[in-house]
Design goal:
Number of domains: 2
Structural class: mainly alpha
Strand content: under 5%
Distance between the termini: 32 Å
Helix content: 25-40%
Shape: flat
Number of strands: 0
Radius of gyration: 21 Å
């Protein structure tokens, strides 16, 4: 329950502001404590509008996307407790 004189979610906002500087990155199924930029794909060469290897870049981006999706899909599922009849 909320403490007297405080809003319903004030304790959660307080915890957020205490921890917001310690955010290191996004971990699936766990909220971040602050503003954390999304993960990016990096390349050896700078991107230019006339780049010949655009297809290689797109291939690398798709491979990274597919790997992250596979990691999410392959996560172990928690076992359900036995049903009580």
């Amino acid at each position: 329950m909320a403490q007297e004189g405080k809003g319903l979610y004030d304790h959660q906002y307080g915890r957020y502001f205490e921890q917001k500087e310690s955010g290191k990155g996004y971990e699936f199924q766990h909220q971040t404590a602050g503003n954390v930029p999304p993960p990016t794909v990096t390349f050896a060469q700078r991107l230019r509008w006339w780049t010949w290897g655009r297809w290689r870049r797109l291939e690398a981006i798709r491979a990274e996307r597919d790997q992250r999706l596979k990691d999410i899909v392959d996560m172990p599922k928690p076992k359900a407790p036995p049903a009580k009849w």
